[in-house]
Structures are given as structure tokens and as C-alpha cells.
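REQUEST
  id: r-88c1
  op: predict_structure
  target: EAL domain-containing protein
  payload:
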Amino acid sequence: MSVASESGLRATFPDLPPVGPTGNETGGVLVRAFAATSQASLITDPQQRILHVSASFTAITGYGETELLGRDCRVLQGPGSDPAVTAAIRRALNCGEPYEGEVLNYRKDGSPFWNSLSIRPLRDDDGTITHFVSVQRDITARMAHQEELRFQASHDPVTTLPNRRALDLHLSERGARPGAALAMVDVISLRSINGAFGYEAGDSLLKQLGRRMRDRLADGDFLACLGGDRFAVVLENIDGGTRLADSLARLHGAVEAPFSIAHRGRGQDCAIAVSMGLARIPRDGPAGSLLHRADAALRQTRASRPAGLWWSLAPDPPEAALHRHVDTVAETTDAPAARSLRDRLFAGGLSMFMQPVLDLRTGGLHRVEALARLTLADGTVLVPARFLPALDEADLDELFRRGLDQALACLTQWDHEGLSTGVSVNLSPSTLRHPDCARWVGDAIRRHGIEPGRLGLELLETLAMDADVQIEAIDRLLHLGVGLSLDDLGSGYSTLQRLFALPFDAIKLDRGLLDEIRSRPVETLRVISALTQMGRDFGVGVVIEGLEDVGTAEAASILGVPLGQGYVFARPMPAAEVPGWVAAFVVPLQPNTVRSALGALAYHWQFLCLASPHPTGLDGCPLTDFISRHSTTSADARRWHAYQHDRAADPVYGRMLADWLVDLVRDEPLVE
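RESPONSE
  id: r-88c1
  status: 200
  body:
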């Protein structure tokens, strides 16, 4: 039988049932060659029943050839196989299309392995599918590395406790249960311990402290390490009185016995003290200022330590502060009723503001993001957080259609003005599920005469891709040629399996990743670097949101994040202002120069974490000029920096320089 694949490959296989060497000689040779290939490979009939397997396939899976012949390939699927991926495989085979992707499979003994899978249909001269050929590769080691990156992104590297991102997620998921508080715990004089006994001793102390605190938590409490010398504890069922006192007494018990550390080959007892700032978690409304209130209480505690106090409770915020929206163009104290907002939105009140997305490598405009705004009759402009709650799913569909139409109309207008760029538009989960979503997009593209590649659709990370209708909708959108990005990575549901299963061409790092970059800069840089590397590994673009000042922009650029947006470049603006902004814009970043302490720390950290010396000569290093501008505190820093240019840079001096830069970051005013 002569058959051909989608790629044009033609081969001859014996007719069914399969024959041995005494049958068709050419077919027999091909079958034996196929079975001996180093790749894990198999051939099935059109009903996906296995006809031939390679020796590599049986070696990887643990199944013998006779156990597999005649069985369905689903024998390798198990409880951890992603339903979205398996559904995509079935859909491709049922449609006679090729498939490539990664899936979690299971060996005969039940052990899991990650499988890079490629399936191609073979057709006869009439175009009828006669076989499927599958080539598979065990990529468990690569996936384990990706899982390690995921773990690192949500856990502190020293204590292995959950980190700030995990704390944020915990706070967002716990709901509005009453009687809880957030405690910020600071280890006093940790740097003195590092200086006297070394960083390994300091790290050992932090690990021991983390274990002791964790052992003293009540059911439902949550402990996180925010990096360096700081921990955070969510205390549940705290209603004041003895419950609060008991919980705090348990936590303080973690430091009442000395810690054992190693110094010069001998054990050494070391006593430490802690300070704590406590803030009640509000019963209703957002907890946006919670960390800041707990941190303010912590600073008050440290100032009060001479009086013997080791913790302070922050005052509860005024009720108005709980419901304040911080990401607004303008505030209104007398908001219209929900229905009035909805009516105004669809009666001429909708406009798409544009925020530029810059190429951090060149400083040029990459595209703009279209952001919906509602303009009230008095000229007040509201952001989506103010009017989206007034909309149902049908309204959200209409908002998408109108916003998309306005955004593409802007591209057409800018083309006439000599500005050619792309635009991205947010797509809600409910609109994606609408059966006409792809048609709406296709009609809008054709109506405005826009190349599909100039449009990007941003899907929220919280979108759970577990329904065939959603995956099929994405397939239809991609068939149009538009771009697809995963928005707000780090804020919600995302998993590595989703990045593998769905063909995103870009990911956007959530602005919340930068919330604590000044209080915990090294940990934040580590997360941004890991997510950027993940983007490179997946072959997708990476955009970071929330670049509000030169420091964060410099740090992102130095760490290799290719694209960025934020107030340091431009706030969202009416579409008519974009061409003028482009003509007048001067990028605030300068090559081979660092203006901010955060940029200097990012530059040094990228080499410190690799135990690598700085690559340029000392005179040409960007840090040399930066350190010289801090002459009052830089005597030791100049010496530590010089050591980084030795061929064998001493990591101890590297960490001392990093500590000095961290202090500057925490004290440095923002440079806009």
C-alpha cells in the first residue's frame, strides 16, 4: 500500500493484517526499520489502534509489543493527563490533522513521564487516511526544570517557604472571613550575624526560624518568607483578647531558645530577637493597603524597642479607604447607579484609551494596548473597575465588539497620519465562549482593512481552559492570523501545562509582581528573571506591566525583558494623542548607564547569581560611575565592586555589594 503524509512523505506498508519478512519485501524492511528507530514511534490504523511500535517506545513505556498491538493509544493517558491537551489530540485525529504538543503520560508501572508528541496522518492516492504515524520523546527532565522554575517563582530560595507572590494569592483566595490579621516579622541584626559568622550561618538561622514558626502556627494560618530578614504570617480566628495574645506568644516562642549555627567548623549558639507589625484584615472590601499598614506598624515597633515592645498593631483604616480605587483617571464620590453607567457606556460614553508598549531593547514603540474608559456627562473618566460590575455577559460581548471596532479604526486613522503600529484588546472569558466571537473579530478586521497580525487579543490568566468550546474558539481566532497573549501572568490560575497546550505568542507579567520591588528587591528580580527565561524557553514574547519609574524600567531592561509598559513611559491616553506622543517621546533609558539603585542592583545581581565576574573593565563598568555618585557611603562599595572585576570574583564581596545596593534601593526616591 502506497501512502503519503501531510508533508509529502510517501511510504509503502503491507496491507492489514501486518505481515512479516515473507510478505511484501519493501513493506517488511520499512516496518523493521521503523521498529528499530531510536525515537519512540508507533503506527496506528485510522481508528487509532496500534499496528507497529518501535523498540524505543516499549523501552520508555514498559509495555511489551504484544501488549500494545491492537490497543488504543489512550492506554498511556492517566489521572494527571491534561483534559484540554487530550481533547486537542482527539480533535486533531478526528479531523485528520497533524498534532504537536506535550502531554503527561503514564508507563505500565504507573510512573508518569512528560511526552513530546508529534502525530501525522498518512493518506492513500485518493486522500483517505490509512494510518497515523506518531513520534514521541521523553521530556521529563525538561519539564522537571520548568516545574523547578515554577516552584522558585512562588517560594523563597533560602527557607523554601511561600514567597510574596504566594502570600498575595493566599490573601486573594481566603475571601472576606472576619477575625484575621497579617503580621510582618523582622529579624533584628541579621546583617550583623552575616558579618560575624558568614552568610551560610545567616541562611541556616533563617531556615531554622522558618521551621520553628511554621511548627507554631494554628490550623488555617499561613506563613511566608518575603526575603532577606522578613517573614509574613496570616493569623486566622483572631478577634482580640486572649486569642491574639496566645497566637503572638506562640510566634515569639520561636526565638526564645538559641539557634545553633556552624562557625569555623564548630557549633555556636546564637540568640536573636524579632520585631512585629500587625494589621487587621478588613472584613469587607479590598485589602490593598494591608501590607503597607503592617509594614508601618513594624517600623513603629522598631522605634519603640527601647521601651521593651516587640509588636505593634496598626490602626484600622477608615471605611472610605477600604473602597478607594487607586487605578483611576478620576474619582467620583457620587457614582451613578449601575444601570445608568451601563446606559451611558453604550450611548456614546465608551472610548478606548491607548497605552504604549515599548521595546525595552531599542526604546521604540512596539504596539499600543487599548483600554476601555467610560466618560460621564460631566467629563469624568472612569476605569473598568468602576463600570464592569454593572455589565452582564451580553453587555461584555457588546463592549468587546465596540472596543475592538474603535481600536481598529484608530489603526486606520494612524496609518493615514504616517504611524503604523499594532494594537492589543482584552478578551473576557465569557466573550471567548460566545460561538460568534471569531466571526466578530474576522468581520472587524475585514471592515477596517487591517492585517490580522497587527491585532493581538489578551486573555486573562484566570481564564480556565477546561472546555472544548473555549479551545475551539481559540483555534478559530488563530486561524484568522491574530496574535494571542496570556495576560497578567502571576495573578491567578496559570499553569505550565496551559502554556504548553495553548499557542500563546506572548505573556504579560502582572504589575503586582513589582509591588514590593523596593522592600524586597532581590526576590522580585529573581521572579522576573525566572519568568522572562520561561518565556524564552517557550519561544514567546514577554511584556512587563507596571513600570512606573526609571528604576523599575532599568531593572526590567537589564534582566532582558523585551517589552514593557507603564507610567514611566506614558499613561493611557486618548487615541488622538498617540501620534503626537510618538513624535515627542524620548526614552528615559540610556545604554550602558544606570541611573537608579534598582538598575545598579539588577546589573550586579545578574552576575552574582551566576557566580560570574563583571564582564567589562572596571573603568567601563556602569556601576563605577553609579558608585562614584554616592561618595558619602561608597568607600567600601568601591572596594567590593573592584573585586567583582577579578577573574575569580569573591562571592562574599559580591553579596556585600548587593546588600549595600539593597539599602540604597529601599531609601532611594523614585526617579520619573
